[in-house]
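Submission checklist for the structure archive. All mandatory fields must be present; incomplete records are returned to the submitter.

[x] Identifier: Methyltransferase family protein
[x] Organism: Marihabitans asiaticum
[x] Residue count: 266
[x] Sequence attached
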Amino acid sequence: MPSQRPVGAVTRGTTNPNRLRRADRWLISTHAARLRGGPPPVLVDLGYGSAGVTTREWAERVAAVRANTQVVGVEIDPERVAAAQPLSRPGLSFVLGGFELPVPPARVIRAFNVLRQYDEGEVPPAWERLRQGLDPAGIVVDGTCDELGRLGAWVTLDRSGPLTLTLSWRLNDLDLDTRMPSVVAERLPKALIHRNVPGEPVHALLGDLDAAWARSAPYATYGARAHAVEAFAHLARSWPVIGDARRWRLGELTVRWSAVAPTSQP
């Protein structure tokens, strides 16, 4: 247990089984080499909520990439830590803590639906503190998703700062419900959610994304995946998109952070 009071505030703690499956799939595929390289990695699930189920799922999924990974759920609420203890096993533990991270340097720090509940001005110092908790090959994944995990967005940072923004959709929901991709705006990370206004880069990105989606509508005849591949390929002609159709078919679009970073500090 940490000797000082954990840094941070208690969040609502809502969670559901499989809520973070899309982000887990992205991490395991996109950062497999990072997980496999170097000494056995520590992965931190910061603010896992009222139940440790998504932390346990994460441990099971990363074990397919590297068996000797140590996954640690960190929660600021002692009752949540106590409630999660029955899920503990070799390679999976739950401890009391906050942004000070009472664990060894981490390869991955996952903070989903945590900073969303803070003020925008609190994000940069929180990011800085988390980055200090990384090992040399480590990354922070700060994200937000809906209750069922079908819609989400996350920022990836390393020790140097923010790298990318990833947007994620359950593609069938877009075509079946005739929604536009910009619906993901409601799940943007805290650093961006208040920046979806004219003049901000993320607003321009979402506008161009909707336009590309509408332009590619005829491809919906071949299914939601074909629609997404065409739309995202069109967007990639004018935006620094990272990745290709293999990720797009899964409903993932990643762009460089420099293209969407806020134009001013909060």
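[x] Structure attached
Curator remark: The mean pLDDT is 93. Residues 201-215 form the longest helix (15 residues).
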